[in-house]
Amino acid sequence: MGDNPSRSENASAGDLGVTARHARGAGTGVSPSSFEEPPFGGGGALPKKTRFGMEAGFRGLSVAAGAMVLVIIVAIAVFLISKAVPAIRADNENFLTFNQWFPNETEPRFGIAVLAFGTVLTSIIALLVAVPIALGIALFLSHYAPKRLATPLGFIIDLLAAVPSVVFGLWGRDVFLEPVRNFSAWLNEYFGWIPIFGGDGPFGRSVLLGSLVLAIMVLPIVTSLSREVFLQTPTMNEEAALALGATKWEMVRTSVIPYGKPGVIAAVMLGLGRALGETIALALTLGIVFNISFNVIENGGNSIAANIANAFGEANETGRGALIASGLVLFAITLVVNMAARAIIYRRREFRDSAA
Amino acid sequence: MAKRIEASNVSSYYGSFKAIDSVSMVVEPKTITALIGPSGCGKSTFLRSINRMHEVLPNARIEGSLTIDEQNIYDPDVDVTAVRRLIGMVFQRPNPFPTMSIYENVVAGLKLNGVKKKSVLDDAAEQSLKSANLWNEVKDRLGRPGAGLSGGQQQRLCIARTIAVEPQVVLMDEPCSALDPISTLAIEDLMFKLKDRFTIIIVTHNMQQAARVSDKTGFFSIDKTGDPGRLIEYDDTQKIFSNPNEKKTEDYITGRFG
Ligand SMILES: Nc1ncnc2c1ncn2[C@@H]1O[C@H](COP(=O)(O)OP(=O)(O)O)[C@@H](O)[C@H]1O
Ligand SMILES: [Mg+2]
């Protein structure tokens, strides 16, 4: 997956070549002069190229479509920024560092700190839980499970990806809460000396619950994408390892995992994207508290997207602007994460480009 | 360092399809044996049966017996990874590990065997690359990706990787078919050199190559598609190419068939 950009460059270069050739081909056929004088063979003038062919039409269409996407994106950005800037101007506190959210008062005071912290914390915990499990399942499905088992199991996992997040949220709030609360109490009793498991309760509607629900939601994406890339490992690379005397697991380690690594990173990033942007499941499971705390089991936690869902209804003009500003921060976080992922993928790019 | 391979009545199957029927041959240590024959007659299947790579494919199995210095390769108690370390393999298409550097490729097998010491790995890498006639070309760029080399260099890299684990036997499945004539000659030179240390079995489509490099030649053939391949004739290369016993062999050698 890491070599996609270069592939598509090549592909588009190729396309242009083909396009040009087709255009000429069409010209030969449609040329009006071709009735009197044969297009090939000696004599006559070369056929003219058609001015408004299908090719030009399609090119125009695709350029227009591309331009439209850009225009829409710019329009959205302008709209969001025009709403966010006045709200941030009206803020009586530092938007980046203040840790309360009172944008609807006559003297608005609000800051993104708690929300950004909560968003990042829940997402990271969710990934820490989900990624190892997802990779294990993906490897099992691609290289260990018999086909009869792998196909239905893969299908079920894909189905899990299609479950709407509100269902996960309700399930987390009404069903999963109880076991997590008991587990939290247990953690608190035996591991309370570790600050993240400390506190005196109440437990349950916590960062832990939100993160675990997120982990379950992220799991299918990471699993099925990783499974795809693992399955794409060229047989000849796997056989190279086996022929050197590798066991199955050593073969997986020397050829499957390194080959799939950029794809796995991309899968994890997609999962992270979903976790960062997840709204309703977190709004339903987190305690929605405005403080910055690493305690993961006490009631509490918050996130940018969940806060937007919770606060939009009662927001006034400035309040909505403030929420939009928080949305822009979320966008910035996602962007940074994506760029970091790309940097990782490109770092060993020469090793992958030459692989093809 | 080199060992004797004995196949008796080896039949290999893909599911219910019998790809080779009852192949028997003895390969002496420190010789080069060429396997020739038309496409689809089971040369690769036989070769992969020798180092137990055949069974990697689902439902693939063999009948008959294969031994290396009297030890049964297919003994249920034998560790298959040990067999493959003893009997190395070079594939038709060069297949260096795409994510590894030249150096990492060469020592990959040693690392799999638990060798960790840098000095041992360095020595082995240098020796193997020298044996594979590649050292001079790559010694200044060992950290560069192995897949960035030319096809012929990649194939020599794969040979270096194979011999780095010090096998007894080296199997080569059409190692030059993806290479240009110069690289092909480089690999043939290399085979002569490796013959001092290893038993080599090479599948080739190139009759001149078989005649040039091998001591013994085995001719495989099939009667018609769907039939299993058979070893028609197996003899000194000299004899096969000048005065074969079988009419089929002669037809194939002289280009009247296949
Ligand atoms: N993976 C496989 N599954 C099923 N049949 C196979 C497979 N590989 C090879 N065969 C069949 O086995 C026969 C021998 O193939 P192969 O050993 O590759 O021949 P050669 O190397 O002499 O060209 C052919 O009929 C081929 O179609
Ligand atoms: Mg073959």
Explain what you see.
The complex is a heterodimer of chains A (356) and B (258). With 356 residues, chain A is mainly alpha-helical. Chain A has one domain: Orthogonal Bundle (MetI-like fold). Chain A is 71% helix and 1% strand. Chain A is built from twelve helices and two strands, in the order H-H-E-E-H-H-H-H-H-H-H-H-H-H. Chain A has helices spanning 4-30, 54-90, 113-144, 147-161, 165-191, 207-231, 235-243, 248-277, 280-285, 304-311, 317-347, 349-353, and strands spanning 101-102, 109-110. Chain A has a two-stranded antiparallel ribbon. In chain A, strand 1 (101-102) and strand 2 form a beta hairpin. In chain A, helix 2 packs across helix 11 (317-347). Mean pLDDT of chain A is 84; it is low at 1-35. By secondary structure, chain B is α/β, with parallel strands linked by helices. Chain B has a domain at 5-95 and 168-253: Rossmann fold (3-Layer(aba) Sandwich), CATH 3.40.50.300. In chain B, the strands form two sheets. In chain B, strands 6-7-8-3-9-10 form a six-stranded mixed β-sheet, with helices on both faces. In chain B, strands 2-1-4-5 form a four-stranded antiparallel β-sheet, covered by helices on one side. In chain B, strand 4 and strand 5 form a beta hairpin. The longest helix of chain B is centred in the middle third of the chain and has 14 residues, at 118-131. The mean pLDDT of chain B is 93. The chains are: A mainly alpha (356), B alpha/beta (258). The interface between A and B is medium-sized, with 24 and 29 residues. Bound molecules: adenosine-5'-diphosphate (ADP) and magnesium ion. Magnesium ion binds next to helix 1 of chain B. Adenosine-5'-diphosphate (ADP) binds at residues 14, 17, 19, 37, 39-45, 57, 229 of chain B.
Layout of SSEs?
The complex is a heterodimer of chains A (356) and B (258).
Chain A lengths: L3 H27 L23 H37 L10 E2 L6 E2 L2 H32 L2 H15 L3 H27 L15 H25 L3 H9 L4 H30 L2 H6 L18 H8 L5 H31 L1 H5 L3
Antiparallel strand pairs in A: 1-2
Helix pairs in contact in A: 2-11, 3-6, 3-8, 4-6, 5-6, 6-8, 7-8, 8-11, 10-11
Chain B lengths: L4 E10 L2 E11 L4 E5 L6 H8 L9 E9 L2 E2 L7 H7 E4 L11 H11 L5 H14 L3 H4 L12 H14 L4 E5 L7 H14 L4 E5 L3 H7 L2 E6 L8 E7 H6 L4 H7 L5
Parallel strand pairs in B: 3-8, 3-9, 6-7, 7-8
Antiparallel strand pairs in B: 1-2, 1-4, 4-5, 9-10
Helix pairs in contact in B: 3-4, 3-6, 4-6, 6-7
The structure holds adenosine-5'-diphosphate (ADP) and magnesium ion.
Adenosine-5'-diphosphate binds next to β2 and α1 of chain B.
